[in-house]
Amino acid sequence: MTPCGDPQILDPADYEAAKRMARSTDPAVRRRVAASPQTRPELLYFLAADTATEVREAIATNAGTPRQADLMLAKDREVAVRGALAQKVARLLPDLSADQASQIERLTLECLEALARDQATEVRGILSEALKELPGAPHGVINTLARDVELSVCAPVLQFSPILTDEDLADIIMRGPVAGALSAIAGRKQISASVADAIARSDDEAAVTALLANPSAQIREETLDRILDQAPQHEPWHAPLVRRPRLPARAVARLASFVADNLLKVLRERTDLDPAAARALAEGVRARVNRGAGGNGAGPGAARGLVDFGEEELGHLPGDKDKAAERPSDKAARLNKEGKLTEKLLEGALAEGDRAFVLAGLGELAQLPMPIIDRIIGTHAPRAVTSLVWRCGLSMRFARQVQLRIAQIPPKTALMAREGVLYPMSDDEMRWQLAFFGVEEKA
Question: What is the spatial distance between Cα 11 and Cα 423, in angstroms, rounded to a whole number?
Answer without folding.
Answer: 84
